[in-house]
Every structure is written in structure tokens, then in C-alpha cells.
Amino acid sequence: DGTLTTTDNSIEFDPNVMRQYNQSQIQASLTKSATKHNYKAGFIYDAQTGLESYQFTPQSQLALDALANIYQLGESSIPTNPFLPKGVTPTGSIDALNNPVVTLAGPGETFPTVYVNKSGYYGAAYVQDTWQESSRFTVNYGARYDAFHQGQHSASNQGYTNSTTLTTGELSPRVNTAYSLGRATVARVSYDKLFTQPPLAQGAIVGYSIKPETWDQYETSVEKQIGSTQTTKIDYYYKNIHNQDDTGILIPFTQIGALTTLNYQYASVHGLELSYDLTPRNNVGTSAFVAYSYSVARPGGLNEVGGPAPIVNDHTQYDTLTTGVTYTWLSKAYISSTLYFGSGEASSALTSVGPVGPDGGGILQDGHTIPRAQVDVRVASSPRALGFAGLQLDVVNLFNSLAVDNFNSGFSGTRFQQARTLLLTTSAKF
């Protein structure tokens, strides 16, 4: 009926996106072994250049509003949206995606092409020692220095221009210990400071340099071997993150493969992992595994354009369970089944009142999600069942669950769980 709803006015674009980047890398390491020590030192240098170009031509009013409000996440100091022609005027109304409605200066407007040139480097040097203090205690310790530089120049064929540079470095110590508590039982405790450089291409907001993500990670675990065929493990970790890099869709509520990275001031992640593995002798008989994990991520502070961090982002995992069992015959033919259950990984549907934007808008119940489950089956004949070849049948999503993974998500668009799929494969040795 012409109203600005997602039913009657789809958010579609005619996009023209190009990304090209180059890296040249040199690295070296030196290892020296002593009686109880294993020393290692090394370095890496990675020169980087990138070129990107973007042009988005909206095919509806909703799409125009979304394009006009890419950078309106709380920051009012951005004077120009480089993806828009001149003469865009707000009307004072709000559309179905909570974007301000805008109008163009006239019909037939040509939308600009935006070019982004990047160049810089990543370099690191490290030293470490693995010291076997005794038959029961081993410690790995060392330090790493990471350096990152990136210059970015942005321009459009309609007059927009902007340049930024970023140079930063970080010294990262680390200590990892393992102690034997008794027969076939090992306890591990570790502290690591880590550094991750931001994406080279298709990852920056035009006109802004993304800071590298750094974090302090604390981890402890206990692993026990039961006999020669079974292993159990419990692991807990905590990450204290600075400048968390979170990459999502450049234009929220679309499925265009143009991404952007938001840089939250800080975040924390708590996680627990439990696992059990059964491996038969000589790989004949019944094998099985169970792996359960629970983790919660909480970003905080502001992003680089001044907007607040969301309540949740796709680093949150909540409950994930994978389990499977396989029976293998002497001929190496086997049958197996696996179960996957997830309630909070990136592909689960967030519980919300509507589309979920990068600012977390629309989320209910503190970001809890709609769980999904998938059962898969695999049957394989002997590798020589046909004389020199074997067959393998995979049944993916056995019970044909068609759950909605994401609906209008600001992180990853709309996606559905893949329907039941049959895959028949033959393999042979010559």
C-alpha cells in the first residue's frame, strides 16, 4: 500500500562493490634446545595495501533511509555521508526500521562511488622458553611485541575526501604452566596477553581507523586420561578485552557482502567448556564424544563513532552442545551420527521485538536466543568396497529443521537453517 513497512517496501540495493588487497610477508625463527629448556625467538613483518570501492543505489525508500543513516549510531560530528549525493533532507518522520525518513534533492540522482585506499604494516618479535622444571611441572613463558600501522585515504567522485592514520604497539607477556596431579591427570593454568590486528579490507568505517584488539586471557583446566581410550576435560577462561573489534553488515538489515567493523572500548567474556572423548583401540569399534560450552560476552563503552555498545553481540555463545557416536568395522566401513544444539552462537535468532541493529536496538530478555538443533548421519563403506573405491552417504539435518537463524539481523541479515541434504561421495586410490 506504499507505506514504509518491511512488508510493502523491501530494503534492496543495486550495489557495486570491489575489494582488492595485497600482503607481502617475511618471517624467521631460531630454536635452541638445552637440558631442560627449549628456547625460541622470531619475528614477522607483513606489508599491507588495500583498495576498496563502494556504490549503493537504493531501490526503495526504506533502502534510502538506511543508507542515509549508516553513521547515525550516536555520533553527530560526521559532517558528510560519503555514500549519498548532495541535497538529502530529513523529513522528520521515522520508518519501520526506526531510521529517519529522508528525501533527495530531485529525481534521477546519481549515487557516488566511494574509494578507500589503505596501506600499512604489521610487525612482531618474540622470545620464549619452555622449561621442564621436573617430571611433573612444565612452564612456558615469554613476551611478544606487536606493532601496527595503517593509513587510510577516502574519496568519492562527488567531492568527499578524508584521511586518517593510526600507529600503535603493544608488549604482551605470557605464562603457561602444566602440572601433573597424579597418574594421567594434568592441571593447567595460564595468563596470556594477546594482540589482534583489525581487518585489512572491507572492515573499516570510511574516515576512521580501527584500533587493534588486545586482551588479557586467564585460563585454567584439568584433563584426565581414563585408561588408554577415554579422556575428560574441564576448562574455564576469562577474557578482559580492550578495543573489541566486532565486524558486521555495513548497511544494517541487508545481506550485501559489504562489512564494517565497530571498535567497542572494552568487553569481557566468561566461558566454561566440558568434554569427553572415547577412542577404541586400533580405531575399531565404538567411538564417541561430548562437548559442552557456555560463554557470555559483554561489550561496553562507546564505539569509534560515539554510539553505545550493544547489550549483546555475536561473540556471545550461551549454551552449545555437540555429541556424536561412531561404529567402525575392521574393513574401515562405519556409521556415525552427530547432534548439534546451540542457543547463542552468531547464527541463532535473537529474541527481539523486531529487526536487531548494531546498537542492540529491539533486543528483549537481555539478548536470549531461540535455540536450534541439528542431527546429521554419515554412512561409509569400506575404502575398497568396490574393489578399489568406496562410497560415503551424508545426511545433513536429518529431521529437516527449517529454523530461522537470523531475521533482519544487523549482524548477518536473514538466514535460514539449511534443509535436509543428501550427499553421496565416492573416493578411490590409484
Would you summarize the structure shown here?
By secondary structure, this protein is an all-beta fold.
Question: How is the secondary structure organized here?
Answer:
Blueprint: E1 13-33, E2 37-58, H1 61-68, E3 89-94, E4 100-103, E5 114-132, E6 137-156, E7 161-182, E8 185-196, E9 213-226, E10 230-249, E11 259-278, E12 285-300, E13 318-328, E14 334-342, E15 349-350, E16 369-370, E17 372-380, E18 389-396, E19 404-409, E20 413-416, E21 421-428
Antiparallel strand pairs: 1-2, 2-5, 3-4, 5-6, 6-7, 7-8, 8-9, 9-10, 10-11, 11-12, 12-13, 13-14, 14-17, 15-16, 17-18, 18-21, 19-20
Order of helices and strands: EEHEEEEEEEEEEEEEEEEEEE
The main sheet orders its strands as: 1-2-5-6-7-8-9-10-11-12-13-14-17-18-21
Which whole number gives the mean pLDDT?
A: 85
Q: What characteristic shape results from the CA principal axes? A: globular
Spell out the key features of this protein:
15-stranded antiparallel beta sheet, 59% strand, mainly beta, 430 residues
Overview of the molecule:
This protein has 430 residues and is an all-beta fold. It has one helix spanning 61-68, and strands at residues 13-33, 37-58, 89-94, 100-103, 114-132, 137-156, 161-182, 185-196, 213-226, 230-249, 259-278, 285-300, 318-328, 334-342, 349-350, 369-370, 372-380, 389-396, 404-409, 413-416, 421-428. The strands form four sheets. It has a 15-stranded antiparallel beta sheet with strand order 1-2-5-6-7-8-9-10-11-12-13-14-17-18-21. A two-stranded antiparallel ribbon has the order 3-4. The chain has a two-stranded antiparallel ribbon with strand order 15-16. A hairpin with a 5-residue loop joins strand 3 and strand 4. It is globular and about 75 Å long. It starts with 12 loop residues before the first strand and ends with a strand.
